[in-house]
Structures are given as C-alpha cells and as structure tokens.
Amino acid sequence: MEFRGRPLESVKVKKVIRLSKSCLGESEKQAVLGVLESEYLGMGKEVQYFEEELTKFFGRPALCVANGTAALHLSLQAAGVGLGDEILVQSLTYVASFQAISATGAKPVSCDINSNTFCFDWRDAESRLTSKTKAIMPVHYSGGVGDLSEIYAFAKKYRLRVIEDAAHAFGSEHLGRRIGSFGDIACFSFDGIKNITAGEGGAVLTSDANLIQKMQDGRLLGVKKDTEQRASNQRSWDFDVENQGYRFHMSNINAGIGIEQLKRIESFKEKRQFIAKRYIKRLTNINEIELLNFNYSEIIPHIFVIKVENRNGLRDYLLKLGIECGLHYKPNHMLKMYTDPLIALPITENIYNKVISLPCHVDLKLSEQNYVISKIEEFYNV
Question: Does pTM top 0.85 for this prediction?
C-alpha cells in the first residue's frame, strides 16, 4: 500500500497536541452506517428527527441547514436583508460572518469589541448607525455572549433585527437560559470542531414562524413546501418557486451524527469547562497573560483564548514543541474585500496582535494540558 507515491511505513507522523478536533464514538459511526444502509443519504427523516430533538432541547423551533454560514445567510435573507442594507457586526470574527452578510447584497459594517470579553460592543456600534442599518450580528466569541441583554435593548431602541452568530456557543447559557432558546434569531454551526458536530451542518433557532417557512423553502432552492416531502423521503415534482433559494439543506448522514452528539452535550460541557478552569487556575498569576472575563460555569468554551505579551514568540515556541495554537481571528476590516479607510477599531487591532488560542477539545488529556501549561510557564520564566 502506498501513500502519495511513497511506502506507507516510511511516513513518519510527528506527535502533536491538537488545537481542536472532533470527538466521535461508536454511536456516531453506527448512526452513519444506519443511514448508508437505508440508501437515502440526502435530506429526509433523519434531518427531521434531528430538528425535533433540537426543538426539544431549546424549547422552540429549530431548522437544520448545510453549515453555520448558510444559517446566517438564510436568516438574513428571510429577515428581509438585501442590497443597500447595512449590518453592524464585530470585526473580530471568522470571515464567514461577513461573507454571509455580503452574500445577501448587504454591507457588513465593522464594529469594535469589548476588551474584557472580545464580544460585540453595542456602544461603538451605536456610533456607526445610519438610515441603512437593518440588523445587528453579535458574535458569541469563544462561547461567551458579552452584554447580550444590553445588546437586545440597543436593538429594540433602534428597531433592528438581531441575528446571533452563536457558532461558538452551543450549550452556553445567559442568565440561566440556553443561548438559542430566546431572542430573535440564533445561528449555530455543527462543523467538525464545534461544541457538537454533525461532520458539517448548522441550525437556526427562532420563534418567528414566517421566517422558518421562508428558510425551509430557501434551503431547498426556493421550492415551496418541499420540506414536508423530504421528511417522508420523497421529493416534490409539481412545484413552484417564488424566491431565490440555495442548496443549503442538511443531509441524513450529517443529521445522524448530530443526533448522537446532542445526547453527549452535558459530558462535553463538563469537559470543556474543566479544561478552561484548569487553564485559568494555572495561568492567572503569569503577569504577561490576560484572561477573558467569562463565567465558565455558564458557557461552553469552543476555543480557549488568552491575551499575551510577545504573542508571536510564544506561538513559535509552542509550535516547535508540537503544540498547536491558533489566532482567532484576523479582523475582517483588515481583509481586502472588507477594508474601509474610514473605519478605526483600536481595541480590535490591539487585541489581534496579542491573542492566541490554546488546545481545547473533549479528547485533550490531562497530561497534554499540563505539558502545554508547563511550556507556557517555561517561556515566561515562571
């Protein structure tokens, strides 16, 4: 057996401590095999069942889609966002947030962040309001939600829709309530490294029945009422289309994985919170490190981010030792597509040069985390 032209036994794999990874068990594998044996791999009964389970989990309607970006895109479109509109969104987020906005024809307006939580700063956003502002997109960075109550008060004051980019925050809570169980619209991601995964996928949570219907059609190329047919493993043959749609539906394979992952959310929550609290306990006394102001008994950290002195030096040091680390994220207003010479975001720009993400996933071993911490202490001569 050969691997890219070389004998497989000659390929040496360096042991690394992963920054993030999927955590899959036998139940997920059996779920996929069950879908394969059914020979109906597209959107069907498994997707419907996953939606039903998510609806129970959150206590309001859930809609499954192809990925988190599709969830944001469909939500914006269903809420009436389009050409000429402006959406207020923090710059410190993955480009998916901005791409979902620009895909509708609207303009993402970069906003600054709260220096303690790295979440949406509604006060800065208020200074960027115009007559074209249609909605805001707070990003639940690392699983935290920042000043979410104040953000909703701000949106209500100016009659703006709220599309929460909750890709990092599945299972997190705010004031004792699950993110996604309340508010206007919340969008989740189920890609391979999120708090739960479906391999790939996303979901939208909203109590707005009109939006749900629009997104149900929108995820299936705009074909009206096709969701009902798919739930019976059927397809519509005599149909109508009134609005732009996309191939944004979830497959039964992805739903099968997601159903099993949802059953494990409490154990995932416990492990991720345990990892975060251990990092805090060990790193809090290092003068060169600042920690985010999160209550890790309420949120599930999708990533564990710290602000450090000599970020690039620390990153190079850890990488050479086989410790993966990330930079979450390059601010979008620094990207060519979204640059704006009139935009100045001093907090975001300062923080970007200092943030680094440490290994955080359910399969992280205690010995691995201890090694990561010891090497950070070693770098800072602690």
Answer: yes
